[in-house]
Specification:
This protein has 183 residues and is an alpha/beta fold. It has 2 domains: 85 residues, Response regulator (Rossmann fold); 64 residues, Winged helix-like DNA-binding domain superfamily/Winged helix DNA-binding domain (Arc Repressor Mutant, subunit A, Orthogonal Bundle), CATH 1.10.10.10. A 5-stranded parallel beta sheet has the order 2-1-3-4-5, sandwiched between helices. The longest helix has 49 residues.
């Protein structure tokens, strides 16, 4: 079931509230009192520490709402981590564009985080295989290419990954070394 599309409003009120809530409703967002899949924060000026901190600490993408023409404010909300910026008066099309861009940025960030996690696992696996290859070569008195081939065959025969075969081998060697002081 898809996640509900909710928007959390930070410091939004006055004449901009009806246009904002209507624009969000038109693109399928409900207003939440506590949290949302996106947040919109009205930032009064570049010294509005409460709103800028809310942007920085938010657990979801934040779109800042600012008064037009204030470049210092624009820079401050960008540095705080706003994923989008709307200027007053608020237009429905601008809301839709900024929400789409914020969600796309978060999706991209998640993909990058997943890639980084996968790369870390791959690097860890390669390091284990490299270490096991060296140990196999030393223990069996063979060259590294033959040691690698031995691990590869063990992996294929056991229908396990090379990293698992290498890890299993290292565990066996460590266990043998623990029971045999000469190793």
């Amino acid at each position: 079931m898809p996640e509900p599309r909710t928007a959390f409003l930070i410091g939004v009120g006055g004449s901009s509230l009806p246009a904002l809530t209507a624009g969000l409703a038109e693109i399928g967002y409900e207003i939440s009192e506590t949290a949302g899949t996106i947040a919109l924060a009205f930032v009064q000026n570049a010294n509005d520490d409460r709103a800028l901190l809310a942007i920085t600490e938010a657990k979801c993408p934040v779109i800042a709402i600012i008064k037009p023409g204030d470049s210092e404010l624009l820079h401050a909300v960008a540095l705080a981590g706003a994923r989008g910026i709307l200027d007053l008066p608020i237009r429905r099309s601008a809301i839709e564009i900024q929400v789409a861009l914020a969600c796309a940025a978060i999706a991209h960030q998640r993909r990058l985080e997943n890639k980084a996690t996968l790369l870390e696992r791959t690097l860890k696996s390669r390091n284990i295989v490299e270490k096991a290859t060296q140990v196999v070569a030393t223990v069996r008195g063979i060259n590294r290419a033959d040691a690698y081939e031995h691990l590869r065959r063990t992996s294929m025969n056991g229908r396990i990954s090379m990293a698992e075969a290498a890890e299993n081998f290292l565990v066996k060697i460590e266990a043998a070394a623990g029971s045999d002081p000469s190793m």
